[in-house]
Amino acid sequence: MVKYFSSNADIKNRWDHVVSAFWQRYPNPFSTHVLTEDVVYREVTADHRLLSRRLLTKTNRMPRWAEKFFPSNMSRSVYIIEDSVVDPVTKSLTTYTWNLNHTTLMSVEERCVFQESEEQPASTQLRREAWISSNVYGFSRPIQEFGLARFKSNQVKAMKGLEHALLNLHGEAPQRLLRDTVKDASGKAKEAAFAKTLASAAAVPQKPQQYV
After folding, report:
1. In the chain, fewer beta carbons within 10 Å around the N or the C end?
2. Which pTM was predicted?
3. 3: three-class secondary structure by DSSP
4. Half-sphere exposure for 183 (CA within 13 Å, toward CB)
5. CA dist 65 to 115, 134, 190, Å?
6. What confidence tens digit (pLDDT) does each residue in 126-144 have?
7. Could you tell me where the DSSP H helices lie in 5-102?
8. H helices then E strands: how many in the chain?
9. How far apart are the C-alpha atoms of 53 and 82, rounded to whole Å?
């Protein structure tokens, strides 16, 4: 069973500005978990599309209830591949991301499409989709639930980071940083409470699955 998530957002900025901000969004105060970013491949095709592949390194804080089941020396960093296609003709930016390690514990695949709005050319529409799965026998469901909750929290931070990059692009001081930091602290408290609930669920013995 795979957990699926989708969302739509309207970004009140021109598509070309959003694309420029996309490449400049790290570092930002909302994505401190992103440690490194490296371009490993880039090509401009004959039809003028820009193809890129980047390798990102992020921290991977494991929930306390999961630490009981995995080695203490397990890497706390996760390596992410990000493929992207910029099409200046259709004015779209499509990204595909997935994690390279810890795939048994959890695999997260994400697809984002930044498309110029047909109704409002000064705005950009964002369609985000994610697929979250786990292969840990007996605990796949609570792990996927935790992964979904964390993904929702991180995608809010990603939008704030993109907004921060847009403000910098326009030369505006990010005056909302303090207010957003307070909100982010509230979101972390909710995530901690959810993780505590999952810890209780994980403590219940799992009945082996039976096959006829």
Report:
1. C
2. 0.78
3. strand
4. 10
5. 40, 16, 16
6. 999 999 999 988 889 988 9
7. 15-23, 64-67
8. 4, 7
9. 6
